[in-house]
């Protein structure tokens, strides 16, 4: 019996849409990462990108538990001495809510060029509208 290995020619990619309003950030991000990697499909192959495209709407209405709004910080560095900057989760949700979801999913993908290719299939929007209606996305069921 031969082991099945998916190829880029044989993969089938679907478009999924997720409504993030009221969903817990980390739990939502793990399920989105699994869909991007293709782990929900029986033909999953770890070294081939067989995942689906995922559209996340209402990213500004994602929820978190505990005191993460005040305590969780996002850091970035300019590369210069003293160039470390940080923002809280509340500030990030106010300025760029799409980036909060994107960073949460990015942390759950592999740190190589396959992970970067999978992250490109994630489309995040702060509000309820998205420009991907032509792809006829199906709603993705999110377990809470």
Description:
This protein is α/β, with parallel strands linked by helices and 144 residues long. It has a domain at 15-64 and 97-139: Ribosomal protein L13 (Ribosomal Protein L13p, Chain: A). Helices cover 28% and strands 17% of the residues. It is built from five helices and six strands. The chain has helices at residues 25-37, 68-71, 89-95, 97-106, 113-119; strands at 15-19, 53-57, 73-77, 84-88, 122-124, 138-139. It has a four-stranded parallel beta sheet, covered by helices on one side. The model has no long low-confidence stretch (mean pLDDT 96).
Write the layout of secondary structure elements.
Blueprint lengths: L14 E5 L5 H13 L15 E5 L10 H4 L1 E5 L6 E5 H7 L1 H10 L6 H7 L2 E3 L13 E2 L5
Parallel strand pairs: 1-2, 1-6, 2-5
Antiparallel strand pairs: 3-4
How is this structure best summarized?
This protein is of the alpha/beta class and 144 residues long. Helices cover 28% and strands 17% of the residues.
Q: Key terms for this structure?
A:
4-stranded parallel beta sheet; single chain; Ribosomal Protein L13p, Chain: A; 144 residues
Strand content: 15-25%
CATH topology category name of one domain: Ribosomal Protein L13p, Chain: A
Helix percent reads 25-40%
User: How many helix segments?
Assistant: 5
Q: Structural class from helices and strands? A: alpha/beta
Uncertain ranges: none
- Walk across the major sheet and give the strand order: 5-2-1-6
Rounded radius of gyration (Å) = 17 Å
Main CATH class of one domain: Alpha Beta
Characterize the quaternary organization of these chains.
Answer: single chain
Q: Which whole number gives the mean pLDDT?
A: 96
User: Biggest β-sheet, characterized?
Assistant: 4 strands, parallel
Give the second-level CATH assignment, the architecture of one domain: Alpha-Beta Complex
Distance between the termini: 38 Å
